Amino acid sequence: GGMGKGGTLSLYINDQKVGEGRMEQTQGISLGLGGTLDIGADTGTAVDEEYTPPFEFSGRIEKVTVDLR
Questions:
Q1: Is the dihedral of CA 18, 23, 27, 28 positive or negative?
Q2: pTM for the whole structure
Q3: Contact 51, 40 (CB under 8 A)
Q4: What is the pLDDT at residue 1?
Q5: Segment 11-66, tens digit of pLDDT
């Protein structure tokens, strides 16, 4: 539907699809070729030269909240 107009969201855990749904609003700007929105690892271009992707988080993520307003 265009920039920011929504789309289908898929949730994966360890490469296994565990959920899917419609997101009515999406990010209205481009992240570029290497930009990603990740949780627990940076699979795109590094935001800083101090580390090398995927720079996986080795702890436990207790909760993730996404609030689209």
A1: positive
A2: 0.40
A3: no
A4: 65
A5: 888 778 999 999 888 777 766 666 677 888 887 777 778 888 888 888 998 888 77
> What is the C-alpha to C-alpha distance for residues 34 and 44, in angstroms, rounded to an integer?
5
Return the residue matching tokens 């539907």: 1
DSSP 2-60: -TTS-EEEEEEETTEEEEEEEES---SS---TT----SSS--SS-SSTTS-TT----S-
Amino acid at the residue 53: P
Alpha-carbon torsion (48, 59, 40, 55), positive or negative: positive
Cβ neighbours of residue 53 closer than 8 Å, sequence gap 6 or more: 41, 42, 43, 44, 45, 46
